[in-house]
Design brief:
35% of the residues lie in helices and 21% in strands. It is an alpha+beta fold. Keywords: Hydrolase, Metal-binding, Protease.
C-alpha cells in the first residue's frame, strides 16, 4: 500500500480551510437550524432547509470531477443532503465510502460568555465559536476537503458518498427510512467515516471504538385523586416521592451508582479494557477533570481508568426531568397527588436495549409499594455500537497518519453518548470498516454555552481522513 504524498495533502487541506471552509462554516453557524425535537415547526420556520441550502451551495461550487449534489426528501421527514463522488480510476471495485455528518443543532441555551453567542461566529485564538461549529457543522466540509486533497496529491479513493442528515440531535428518527430508501444507490458500503466524535486532547487522532446505548422512560407515581393538606394527610397517605425513591432503589444502588438489573450489564471485552488503560496513560486527567465539579465535589472514583469504563462500558442512570413538584418558593404544605420523573439510562455498547427497557419497566411496575398507581410513558430504547477489529490496511494507515500528521500515537476510547447512525450502519453493513473520529475535545462545549471548534485539530483530522481514504482504496 503506497502512501499518498503528504505535503500536497497538507497544503491542500490548509488552503481549503483558510480560504473556503472557514468563511462558509461561519455562515452556517449563523443559521439557527435547531433539530426537529427542539423546533417541531421546523418545516415552517425553514431554518433546517436554510442550513441544507447553505451547504448545498458550497458543495455545488466545488470542482470535483463527476460529483453530484442532491437534497433527498421523504414525506414528513427532515431532509438529507448528499454529495456523491465517483471513484478515482482503478478504485471502482473498492466499494462505497460513506462519510457522515449532520447539520441540525442543539438549542442555544443561555449563559454564553461576553462577546459570544450561539448564532454569532467568532474566531478567537484558533477557535471558531458558535452553535454547530464543532457539533457537527464542520463534518461535511472536512469530508469534502479530504476528497479534494487526496485527488490533488495524486491519490485514490473509492466511490464516496457524503451524507449529511438533519435529525441527529433528535435521535436520528428519520435515518432508518433514508438508509432504506438509499440502500440501492449506496451499494456495498465497505468503509464508514463518521466525523461526529472526538477525544481527550488535541494532540493526536482519537478513535471512538464503542458507543453506549440508551433507554428512556417517564414514570409517574400517583397516590391521590387530588392533592391534600400535608398536616392532615401525611402519615396516612404515602408520599408519591417516597414511592418513587423505593422504586429507584430497585434500579440503582444509590451509594455507588451501580445499576442492579442484569439486563443492563455486560462483561467488558479485554481489548476495550486495554484501550481504556492506554487512553488514560496518553491524557492523564482528561477524564477526571473534564467537567466543572462544584466546590469540593469528588469524582465517582479516584481511579481514572474506572471513570472511563464507567462512562463507556457500564450502565448509568440520570434523572433528567421531574414534574408534579412546584418551585420551592411556591410550595405550600401540601401532600401532592403525584410525582413524575424522567429517567435516562446509558447502556453498555453490547447490551440489548429492548431487553434492558423491558427489565426497567418490570421493576417499576411490579409489587409497587402501597399498591400506588404507577404509570410508565415516553419509553425509548436504542442499542449501542462496538467497532469491529481494524483491518490491516486501516491499522497500518492509522500508524502512518499518527506519525506524519499528528506526531503522536493514535488512541481509542469508548464514548459515553450515542450516535444512532453508527448502530444502524453497524447492523446494515457488518463487513464495513469504521473510522469514528472528529475534532471535538473534552472542553469543546457541545450542547452547552460557548461551543467551539479547534481549527488546527479539525484540519489535522481532515488530513488524516484523506490519507485513510487512499489507504482504503489501495488495500
Amino acid at each position: 500500500m503506497a502512501a499518498v504524498e503528504p505535503r500536497t495533502v497538507r497544503d491542500t487541506v490548509r488552503g481549503l480551510w483558510a480560504d473556503d471552509i472557514l468563511p462558509s462554516l461561519s455562515g452556517l453557524v449563523e443559521i439557527p437550524a435547531l433539530s426537529p425535537a427542539f423546533d417541531p415547526a421546523w418545516a415552517a420556520s425553514g431554518h433546517l432547509d436554510a442550513a441544507v441550502e447553505h451547504v448545498r451551495g458550497w458543495l455545488t461550487a466545488r470542482d470535483v470531477p463527476g460529483a453530484r449534489v442532491e437534497v433527498v426528501r421523504l414525506e414528513g421527514r427532515s431532509p438529507v443532503l448528499l454529495l456523491d463522488v465517483p471513484a478515482t480510476e482503478g478504485a471502482e471495485d473498492a466499494g462505497t465510502v460513506l462519510l457522515y455528518g449532520h447539520l441540525d443543532k442543539q438549542p442555544p441555551v443561555g449563559g454564553w460568555s461576553e462577546g459570544l453567542g450561539p448564532w454569532q461566529p467568532v474566531v478567537r485564538d484558533g477557535r471558531l465559536y458558535g452553535r454547530g461549529s464543532a457539533d457537527d457543522g464542520y463534518a461535511g466540509y472536512a469530508a469534502t476537503a479530504a476528497l479534494e486533497a487526496v485527488r490533488a496529491a495524486g491519490g485514490a479513493h473509492a466511490r464516496a458518498v457524503v451524507l449529511l442528515e438533519t435529525g441527529e440531535e433528535s435521535g436520528s428518527p428519520d435515518l432508518p427510512a433514508y438508509l432504506e430508501h438509499l440502500s440501492g444507490r449506496l451499494g456495498r458500503v465497505s468503509f464508514v467515516v463518521c466525523l461526529d466524535s472526538g477525544g481527550n486532547d488535541y494532540e493526536r487522532l482519537w478513535l471512538t471504538t464503542s458507543l453506549r446505548g440508551m433507554a428512556q422512560v417517564r414514570v409517574t407515581a400517583r397516590v391521590l385523586d387530588s392533592a391534600q393538606h400535608s398536616g392532615l394527610a401525611s402519615g396516612v397517605v404515602p408520599s408519591s416521592f417516597r414511592v418513587l425513591r423505593q422504586l429507584l432503589d430497585r434500579l440503582e444502588d444509590s451509594a455507588t451508582g451501580e445499576i442492579r438489573l442484569a439486563e443492563c450489564n455486560v462483561e467488558i471485552p479485554e481489548n476495550r479494557l486495554a484501550e481504556a488503560r492506554a487512553a488514560v496513560s496518553a491524557a492523564p486527567g482528561a477524564v477526571r477533570d473534564a467537567y466543572p465539579r462544584h466546590g469540593a465535589t469528588r469524582p465517582v472514583s479516584e481511579d481514572e481508568i474506572e471513570l472511563l469504563l464507567n462512562n463507556s462500558w457500564r450502565p448509568t442512570l440520570s434523572v433528567i426531568g421531574a414534574s408534579g413538584l412546584p418551585e420551592p418558593a411556591e410550595a405550600g404544605n401540601v401532600l401532592r397527588d403525584h410525582t413524575t420523573l424522567a429517567l435516562s439510562f446509558r447502556l453498555p455498547p453490547t447490551a440489548d436495549s429492548a431487553a434492558a427497557l423491558n427489565a426497567v419497566e418490570k421493576a417499576l411496575t411490579t409489587d409497587v409499594p402501597y399498591s400506588a398507581t404507577v404509570e410508565v410513558s415516553g419509553t425509548e430504547a436504542a442499542d449501542g455500537w462496538n467497532a469491529p477489529d481494524a483491518a490491516p490496511w486501516l491499522a497500518t494507515g492509522l500508524e502512518r497518519v499518527s506519525e506524519q500528521v499528528f506526531g503522536a500515537p493514535w488512541r481509542a476510547i469508548g464514548l459515553g453518548g450515542s450516535i444512532p447512525f453508527m448502530g444502524l450502519l453497524g447492523a446494515k453493513y457488518p463487513e464495513a470498516q469504521f473510522l469514528v473520529t472528529g475534532a471535538l475535545g473534552p472542553d469543546s462545549n457541545a450542547h452547552v454555552p460557548d461551543e467551539w471548534l479547534h481549527l488546527e485539530q479539525a484540519q489535522r483530522v481532515t488530513e488524516a481522513v484523506a490519507h485513510l481514504l487512499h489507504a482504503h482504496a489501495t488495500a
